[in-house]
Design a protein that fits this description.
Layout: H1 14-28, E1 34-40, H2 45-56, E2 60-66, E3 70-72, E4 75-77
Parallel strand pairs: 1-2
Antiparallel strand pairs: 3-4
Helix pairs in contact: 1-2
Length: 84
Amino acid sequence: MLQSHVCSNIEPDSFKSGEHIGKSIKSKLTKTSIIFIYISEIHEHSQLVKGVKSVLGEVNIIGNTSSCGVITPSGYLFNREGFA
């Protein structure tokens, strides 16, 4: 069965932002095969990935950056100090 989950945060610390993403995914999905992450250019990408993997273990991640925000189910998300 295909499952999906959308989460977002404005945590400026890259590792903590990744942890938040991992915890949110873990609380909603029974199995994670692949994650798509869109993050700000400000985040340290390797640290954010480490944060995700500290919660979920080894998981396939496809990522991209955005300098002007992302659209989520809750609306437009932007923060000059970082978003994911």
